[in-house]
Structures are given as structure tokens and as C-alpha cells.
Write a structure and sequence with these properties.
The complex is a heterotrimer of chains A (about 180), B (about 425) and C (about 260).
Chain A lengths: L18 H23 L5 H5 L3 E4 L8 E6 L2 E7 L2 H8 L12 H4 L7 E5 L22 E5 L4 E4 L4 E3 L11 E5 L2 E4 L1
Antiparallel strand pairs in A: 1-9, 2-3, 3-4, 5-6, 6-7, 8-9
Chain B lengths: L11 H9 L2 H9 L4 E3 L8 H20 L9 H10 L4 H29 L7 H23 L4 H13 L7 H9 L6 H32 L15 E3 H26 L29 H9 L4 E2 L6 E3 L1 H14 L4 H4 L11 H21 L7 H26 L19
Antiparallel strand pairs in B: 1-2, 3-4
Helix pairs in contact in B: 3-5, 3-9, 3-10, 4-5, 5-6, 5-10, 6-7, 6-9, 11-12, 11-14, 11-15, 14-15
Chain C lengths: L2 H18 L27 H13 L7 E5 L10 H9 L2 E6 L5 E5 L5 E2 L6 H6 L19 H10 L15 E2 L7 E2 L20 H16 L3 H34 L8
Helix pairs in contact in C: 2-6, 5-6
């Protein structure tokens, strides 16, 4: 209980929300709110991180039947130059046989069907599947094999057998030229 | 002695909270409607809240910087440059933090000078004063360690000079220095622990600030007349009068702060700190930041040993004397309430005291200038005179003034003759 | 001496303290020539054309000995260069990135995200190639020297014959703007060493001015953003100061008139 015997009010006697005081408080509040943004935005990716948001891959060094691993945004990406046999194998699979139903055409880009670009991260619990380097185990479907819990991926990177629920993720990519791939 | 007024908020939810944790009442009684405050406080009384604001600015900007800084000698300098160039608004937050340290000291030095002039250290505010000195010492430790973190030339060499001082302590000096360094010179272990402590101490400061505000609540605000509150006619509620005045003062202070951050962000710093630390190359002149300069001057001013005359026997070497003088200059202030025993608090009614107060201010400015100069030419002499005056001011002048000064008559009350008699 | 005088002395000395910081000690270098820079002052900006020419000077002259370790090729975008141009420049350089299967360092062509490669693998190699002195990195040079922009310009233009009483050690060059007068760097800029792409005459003065503008941009890339934000922030605060002032005066009116707020 306040001991003030009169409330702080205008001469009229009634408590008046004085425009000046509201304006001052409002202006101060707006300033404080605007000032918060830099402190939040500084946590967003910095310029050097964003500079690595895309990566370019020279495809001319990858022969048919070969594949490479590219590091992109801190994770592995498999880039495989498929042979026509591998492409046909992928296209002849019936939808009913697939766990995660996607056609081969959906997972590559028209005119560049021989290039399969998928995240090298098993969709089960995140291990890096084998099958990129020559001599690697490729599993029962000629694609990739994850040694952690035995997931098998086919030549379109789709899950065929094992605990993984989804096909290997296809990241955003563009062909800058026929021999230059930009991931991200 | 301040009385506590229980708040009973009209809002139901607020009343529910208040019953369980009386935070609303707490705020009300410290900076609120229920905080009777002298009606005559002038703008020198704004600097306490300004110091509190700067503490918050430093903590917020510092915690954010710590998200991007790496306290390893191989990466520290680079991480700061990354903050300046790549982190979103990193340049803004870094300049805010670096200049914020200077503005924190500007606010605190002004706040201390207010205390010295108006006798804020006198009974019953002795503990309030001493808590303030503890905050000041913690601030100096924090600022010193913070300046080392960018790992520039001044960071490294400043750290080397100041940590080396502890070797002046007899018998255990060298062991203490080795303990501080975590090695045989200022190096990675030193940097890492300075980062840890630099992050920690501001929260210790916050704790002491809370005690400081508590002590202030107990003894109530002083005022420019230095006389006690005689009746409630002398007082007005803190809110809205001093909340709006503090807000106005803060806006002015931040406008000047902004002028530095945005238009002269490196004016208060030293160019050598943009050169990565090199233990093999000593900079031309090792100087601390401006707020340490008077103490640096006191440290360097003692160039003579104390020994047995006419023999080579040294009892206290110059280096140790300098260290004792430097720390002594601040520890001395803890005894101020007993050195200055004048019953009159405010310099407004102490004409002789006023003169010496301004001499002290001039002395501190002179010592600041001396601290930034190389110790050659006339500067060491000026430094010694300045140091001598500083100690004489507190140890000789103030006690003598307490005894012999003729003070002016004090006014009857704060309100008189301003307030019309209450109906 | 009056009280007022004593107070004024105190204030004046505080001002002097600020200026005194800039004063020189004995045996100091010559005070740098004071030039006009586009980036000076509260409204300063980077003259893009000058900075681009400065990049040409750095790339073709200075980079032979001086590294620019905090400068990434992608930073050239802020100077107005297109991405293709930046990629092309980056690709002119080789960068070490990772190891091959044999464990040997792998090299690749530079990319925009890379830092400008240092001419030397380490400071020791740099010193060995430069008469024992390490050519300093230039990323921060204009901030690492007092009055940096004018200092660097003066240094570039300041080479002259040593006065009769000054002995220059072997391998050094006389430059009065350098502390002590003896600098290891030979005069780097001469008439005609560069032909500017935009057709500007490549005089030493022009090259010095341009490279300083470029180096200032490298040291302080956020200068323009800082000035711009500063204007908005300070204008906002000044408005806030005015509004708060009048709000404060209004609130305090009854107090100033002696009104009593508490029961006796």
C-alpha cells in the first residue's frame, strides 16, 4: 500500500495517459526491439559458412562406373557416374518392390540421367554407407551397403532391404555445364 | 533506515505471484513507486544506473562474442578477425564490447568522483562504499583479462608486464607468477584461464552489485546537500521521477557511446593490438588501456629503493614499492570513511575541501597523461609528484581538513524552502 | 586561483590528455603526410574505382612479398566485381587442401571461399627472401599503424636520399616516415610498373593512393555498413533524447513547484 497521498496525475485530477509519456516509452521499446535483432542474427550462419553453402564438382574426372565422395555442408555426398546397365537396372524395378516409392527418373535430372547425386548418409541412423570406392561392398542391389545395421541401396540410391525407412536423400543440385556440377 | 512497503498488486495474477515470490514488491521498493528518494538529486546521481546498464551491455555482448571466440593462442586473433568480417553483425558486437569497457569505466569513475565530492562514503554508508570498491577491483581484473583475449601485441605484452609484477612479492613472488602463467611465460595456458575467469567475474560483479544496491536501500540515497532526510516532504517516489530521469541520462550516454562505436571505434584503443602477438618482438611502448593509466603511472613512479642509508642494504626494492603503491592507492580508499572524519558530508558546504577535490581530479588527469608516456624526460618527475599528492591527499589533507576546516552552515532540510507546507 | 579556474584546468587537462595520446616521443618517424581519403569522416565510403585499382596494385606488386591472410577472394564482391571474375582470379592460384591417399598434400585451384594465398609458406621463408625482415601481412596494416592510411601512403612516397649525417646499413633503404629511417623494403612503386585496366595513369602517387584505399577496405570491410547504421542509430537516439527530455520536464513540473507527495 503506497504512502503517496496523491497519484501522479495531470492538473485535471483524472489519470491521463499522456501522449508524450506513451510516445517516449513506445520509442524506447521500439529501439530495444530493433536492437535485439543483431544479437539473434549473429547466431545465423556467418559469411564464411555461407560461402561453403555450395560446392562445385568437376565431373570430367569421374569415368563411367566410378563414383566419388564430396564433402558438402559438413556431410558426404555420393556422386556416381552410372553405366547404362545400372540405369536400366534402376528403371526396371517395380514400384511394389520398393519400400520408399520413387522412380529412377524422379531421382535424377533429365538429360543427365547417368549422374546420380545422393547424400551419403544412411536414412536409418546416419552412418556413411559403403559402395563408392572401387572394391567396396555394394550390397545385394548393386548400389550401396550400410555396414552399421545392414541397409541395402540400389543403383538409384533407393532402400531395398534393411532397417532404413527412406531412400538416400537427393540434395539440390544444378549442372552449370555438362562437366560441372554445383551441389547446393 | 529505509522501511519496506508491502505491495498488494491489484492484478490477480500479479497478486498470486507476489504472495509466493515478492519480486514485484522488491522492484517497487528499490526503483519503484514505493521507493522514497530525496527530491534534490542532480545529474551526478545518474551514473550509478549508467554503470549498471553498462554491466548488462558488457555481459550480453560478451556472451555473444564468446559464441565465436576461440581461447587458443593459435586461433584467438583469427577468431576475432572472423567475428569482425564474417559473423553477422560481429563487427558491431565486438566494437560495442571493446568501447563498452571504456564507457563502463567512464560511468564508474564519474560515479566514484560523485561519491568523493558529496561524502557518499561517510556514515552510515561505509559498507556501501566498500562494496563499490570491491566492484571496482573486480572490474579492473575483468578488463585486464579481457584485453588479453584478442592476443594482439598489447594483449600479450601487457599481460607479461602486469603478471611479472607479482614477482616483486618477496619469497613467494616467482612461484605466484608461475602459478598465474601456468608455465614459464604468458602462453596458451594463461590465455585459456584468462578466458574462463573473464567469463566468470562479471557474474561475481553482478552479485556484488546486488549487495551494493541492497546496502544503498538500507542507508537510503544520499543527496547533493549531504544532509539526512528530515521528513517525507524531502522525498519523492523513485518512479516515475527518477526512472524517467535515468532513462533520459541513459539516452544521452548511449548517444555518445554510439558515436564512438560507429564513428571512432578504435580511438580509445592502441594500433599495436591489431598486430598478432609475438613473444620475440617487444612493442615500442607498452601501455595499458586509458582507464588503467593513472595506476600504471603510480606503479612506475617509484624508482628508488628503501634501504639503510649509506649502505647497499635494500629493504624494499623499487619494484615492490611500485606494486605496493599501485595496489595501495586503491586499498587506501577502503579507509576513507575514517581518514575523512568531517561531520559535514557534501563538498557543497566544505569550501577548503572543494579546492582539494579539484586538485585530486587534476592530479588523476595528470597521472593519466604520465601513464601514457615513456618513462623518460620530465615525465617520471611529474609522475612522482602526482603520486605523492595522491597519497598526501588521503593520508594528510583529508584528516587535517576534518580537524581544522571551517564548514559552511547546513540548510535546515532538503525540502526547505522549496516545498509549500503540506495541507 | 579561483574555484572556476581550477575546474577549468581540470577539464582542459582532460582534453589535453586526449591529444597527448597522439604526441610523439623522441627519435620518432616523420609525421605522415595528411591526404584526403574517400573513407574519412562520418560519411566516408570506399571509392570503388580506386579500391579496384588498388586491388590491381596489390595483386601485381605487393603480393610478391606481402600476404593478405584475412582477405578471401569472395570479399572482392563488395568491391563490385562479378562472381565469374572472382572465380577466375581465385583459379589463378593453387591452394593446398587436404592430403591424397599417399599422405602427400593435395593441391587444387583456388576458389572464392579461399584466403588469398601467402607468397611464402612460413615467416622464416619470408625473412630469408627479404634480407632477414619479414614483410608484414597487409590485411590490417592501416589499423595496425597510427594514422594508418596516411602512414602507408607516406611510406610509399617517402623514399629519398639519406641526409649526410644518417648512415644507412647495407641492404636497407632510407625512408624518413619509417621509425629509425632504415626500412628493409626497397621502393615498391615506380612509374609504369602497372598499366591500370581502367586507363588511369599509373603514377606512383596514384598507385599509392589506390593501394591505400584497397588496404583500408581489406582492414575494415564493414566501414560503410557501420557508418550507415551509425547514422540511423544516432538520429534515433537524438529523437529519443528530445522526447525523453520533454517527458521528464513534464513529469517533474510538480516537484519543481514544491508539491509534496507523501502524507506528513
Amino acid at each position: 500500500m503506497s504512502t503517496i497521498n496523491e497519484t501522479i496525475e495531470g492538473e485535471e485530477g483524472a489519470t491521463r495517459r499522456d501522449f508524450l509519456h506513451v510516445a517516449a516509452t513506445g520509442l524506447g521499446g521500439v529501439g530495444a526491439a530493433v536492437a535485439v535483432w543483431p544479437f539473434v542474427h549473429q547466431m545465423n550462419p556467418a559469411a564464411d559458412t555461407l560461402a561453403l553453402a555450395t560446392v562445385e564438382v568437376d565431373l570430367s574426372a569421374i569415368g563411367a562406373g566410378e563414383a566419388v565422395v564430396i564433402k558438402w555442408r559438413g556431410k558426404p555426398v555420393f556422386v556416381r557416374h552410372r553405366t547404362s546397365a545400372e540405369i536400366e537396372e534402376a528403371r526396371s524395378v517395380k514400384m511394389a518392390d520398393l519400400v520408399d516409392k520413387q522412380t529412377d527418373e524422379e531421382r535424377v535430372q533429365e538429360g543427365h540421367d547417368q549422374w546420380l547425386v545422393v547424400m551419403g548418409v544412411c536414412t536409418h541412423l546416419g552412418c556413411v554407407p559403403l559402395g563408392t570406392k572401387s572394391g567396396d561392398e555394394r550390397g545385394d542391389f548393386g548400389g550401396w551397403f550400410c555396414p552399421c545395421h545392414g541397409s541395402h541401396y540400389d543403383t538409384a540410391g533407393r532402400i531395398r532391404k534393411g532397417p532404413a525407412p527412406k531412400n538416400l536423400e537427393v540434395p539440390a543440385y544444378t549442372f552449370l555445364t555438362d562437366t560441372t556440377l554445383q551441389i547446393g | 533506515m529505509a522501511e519496506w512497503i508491502d505491495a498488494k498488486p491489484k492484478n490477480k495474477a500479479a497478486a498470486w505471484l507476489e504472495e509466493r515470490l515478492p519480486v514485484i514488491g522488491l522492484v517497487n521498493n528499490v526503483v519503484g513507486v514505493d521507493t522514497p528518494t530525496p527530491r534534490n538529486l542532480n545529474y551526478w546521481w545518474n551514473f550509478g544506473s549508467l554503470a549498471g546498464l553498462m554491466l548488462m551491455v558488457q555481459i550480453i555482448s560478451g556472451v555473444v562474442l564468446a559464441m565465436h571466440y576461440t581461447p587458443n593462442t593459435l586461433m584467438a586473433f583469427d577468431s576475432v578477425e572472423r567475428i569482425m568480417r564474417d559473423v553477422n553483425y560481429g563487427w558491431l558486437i565486438r566494437y560495442m564490447h571493446a568501447n563498452g569497457a571504456s564507457f563502463f569505466f567512464i560511468a564508474v569513475y564519474t560515479h566514484i568522483l560523485r561519491g568523493l565530492y558529496y561524502g557518499s562514503y561517510k556514515a552510515p554508508r561505509e559498507v556501501l562504499w566498500m562494496l563499490g570498491l570491491v566492484i571496482f577491483l573486480l572490474m579492473m581484473a575483468t578488463a585486464f583479462m579481457g584485453y588479453v583475449l584478442p592476443w594482439g601485441q598489447m594483449s600479450f605484452w601487457g599481460a607479461t608486464v602486469i603478471t611479472n609484477l607479482f614477482s616483486a612479492i618477496p619469497v613467494v613472488g616467482d612461484s605466484i607468477v608461475t602459478l598465474l602463467w601456468g608455465g614459464f611465460s604468458v602462453d596458451n595456458p594463461t590465455l585459456n584461464r584468462f578466458f574462463s575467469l573473464h567469463y566468470l567475474l562479471p557474474f561475481v560483479i553482478t552479485g556484488v552489485v546486488i549487495l551494493h544496491i541492497w546496502a544503498k536501500k538500507v542507508s537510503d540515497s544520499g543527496n547533493p546537500l549531504g544532509i539526512d532526510v528530515k521528513s517525507s516532504a524531502d522525498q519523492i517516489p523513485f518512479h516515475p521521477f527518477y526512472t524517467v530521469k535515468d532513462a533520459f541520462g541513459a539516452a544521452v550516454f548511449f548517444a555518445i557511446f554510439a558515436a564512438f562505436i560507429f564513428y571512432m571505434p578504435n580511438a580509445l584503443g592502441h594500433p599495436d593490438n591489431y598486430i598478432p602477438a609475438d613473444p620475440m618482438v617487444t612493442p615500442d611502448s607498452i601501455v595499458p588501456e586509458w582507464y588503467f593509466l593513472p595506476f600504471y603511472a603510480i606503479l612506475r613512479s617509484i624508482t628508488f629503493d628503501i634501504g639503510i642509508p649509506f649502505t647497499d642494504v635494500v629493504i624494499i626494492p623499487a619494484k615492490l614499492l611500485g606494486v605496493l603503491a599501485m595496489f595501495g592507492s586503491i586499498l587506501l580508499l577502503f579507509f576513507l570513511p575514517w581518514l575523512d572524519r568531517s561531520k559535514v558530508r557534501s563538498g557543497k558546504f566544505r569550501p577548503m575541501f572543494r579546492w582539494f577535490f579539484w586538485f585530486l581530479v587534476i592530479d588523476m588527469v595528470v597521472l593519466t597523461i604520465v601513464g601514457g608516456k615513456k618513462p623518460e624526460g620530465i615525465w617520471p618527475v611529474i609522475g612522482l609528484v602526482g603520486t605523492a599528492y595522491y597519497f598526501a591527499h588521503f593520508l594528510v589533507v583529508l584528516p587535517l581538513l576534518s580537524k581544522f576546516e571551517k564548514t559552511l552552515p547546513l540548510p535546515e532540510s532538503i525540502a526547505n524552502p522549496v516545498v509549500k507546507a503540506a495541507e | 586561483m579561483t574555484m572556476k579556474l581550477a575546474k577549468n584546468i581540470a577539464i582542459a587537462l582532460t582534453a589535453v590528455a586526449g591529444l597527448a595520446g597522439a604526441a610523439m616521443g623522441a627519435g620518432a618517424a616523420k609525421h605522415p603526410m595528411q591526404m584526403e581519403w574517400s573513407f574519412e569522416g562520418p560519411t566516408g565510403t570506399y571509392d570503388r574505382a580506386a579500391a579496384q585499382r588498388g586491388w590491381q596494385v596489390y595483386k601485381n606488386v605487393c603480393s610478391a612479398c606481402h600476404s593478405l591472410k584475412y582477405f578471401h577472394f569472395r570479399n572482392l564482391a563488395d568491391l563490385g566485381y562479378e562472381e565469374e571474375m572472382i572465380k577466375a582470379w581465385a583459379a589463378e592460384y593453387t591452394v593446398v587442401d587436404g592430403v591424397d591417399d599417399a599422405g602427400d598434400p593435395k593441391e587444387r585451384k583456388g576458389l572464392p571461399q579461399d584466403v588469398f594465398p601467402s607468397p611464402f609458406p612460413n615467416p622464416e621463408a619470408a625473412a630469408a627472401s627479404n634480407g632477414g625482415a619479414v614483410p608484414p601481412d597487409l590485411s590490417l596494416i592501416t589499423k595496425a599503424r597510427h594514422d594508418g592510411a596516411n602512414y602507408v601512403y607516406s611510406l610509399m612516397m617517402g623514399y629519398e636520399d639519406a641526409p649526410a649525417d644518417h648512415e644507412v646499413p647495407a641492404g636497407k633503404n632510407y625512408n624518413p616516415y619509417f621509425k629509425g629511417g632504415n626500412i628493409s623494403m626497397a621502393p615498391p612503386l615506380a612509374e609504369g610498373i602497372i598499366e591500370y585496366e581502367d586507363g588511369t595513369a599509373g603514377t606512383p602517387e596514384q598507385m599509392a593512393k589506390d593501394v591505400v584505399t584497397f588496404l583500408m577496405f581489406v582492414a575494415e570491410p564493414k566501414l560503410e555498413a557501420r557508418h550507415h547504421m551509425g547514422l540511423n542509430v544516432i538520429l534515433y537516439l537524438l529523437v529519443l533524447v528530445v522526447v525523453l527530455y520533454f517527458s521528464m520536464k513534464k513529469i517533474w513540473k510538480p516537484v519543481k513547484e514544491g508539491k509534496n507527495f507523501y502524507k506528513k
